[in-house]
Amino acid sequence: MENLLTYEVGSLAKPEWRVGALADRPITPTYLADARQWGAELGIESEPLLELFSQAPFDQRQKQEIKNWASRYGLRLLERAGLDVVYDGEQQRSEMYHYPVSHSRGFEFRGLLRSFDNKYYRKAACVAKPELEQPYHTDEFRILQQYAEKPLKVPITGAYTLADWSYDEHYAKGIGLGSAGGARQAREAARRRFVLAIARNLVRPNLEALLAAGADWIQLDEPAALTHPEEVPLFVEAFNQSVAGLAGRFTIHICFSDYRLLFPHIDRLENCWGLHIGFANYDSTKLGTRREDRPGYETLYALAGLEHRFNIGLGVLDIHRDTIEPPELVRDRIL
Length: 335
Description:
single chain, alpha/beta, three-stranded mixed sheet
């Protein structure tokens, strides 16, 4: 049997010492103990980090160095777990929406919006043509290249999600007059211009810069892809424009969604090497390999009916449960 390629799809929690130091909080004994303990667990010599902590308050250079240490810890955690392809769990970033938008032109932040539980993000409005200020993942990738012992897979927020999580005060400006049908068509046209402008002007240049820096595998995160079922074809078009003609391994990650809405539209994806979607999150914890035993993997049967053959990120762990899956359950999910 051919070995399965193993990798992690999402982010990792940021160490408390990383969060506290960047927020200018006092360095506590708990921070020091945590950095020392995890350094020992991961085979990382933590004394230089502990010495750095003694230099508080930190300037921007020192804060960047602390982020680099968090990246080393994240990389080594996944490498020690035995994964074939790794990343640092996005230790260099603030948040998957705020980070790219803050490195772009044409947006103004409007305030905090609740995403889930006690998590908030700063939502922006597009007020002019979106343009790239500078590639915003290339420096991060070069930092990780220095520390990684395994191949890297770079996650980047996709065009549709960046648009859907923003207000449109540019392309849709002035729409609302005239007949209901005419206004609807105008809104749809404006929406398409907005999404595709982000694909062409923000996402694609970042992909090109990452490829030039040596990245081979880039994951486009699209948690908003299925928010509006009627716009799934637009999500597909935005992905195609983002990656058209580029020589790389491009995958799509979508989580916590009704994956039935993907069909049949994803058969029109181009230059898409694979899909990372949720399986274990919807599955039973009982053992068994029959179709009825594994409700979380029902989407596989729909994927098998497509003309396009995707590589599938077969998720087998659910991080939103307190239960640690036994090996037998992971085995049955794979089978």
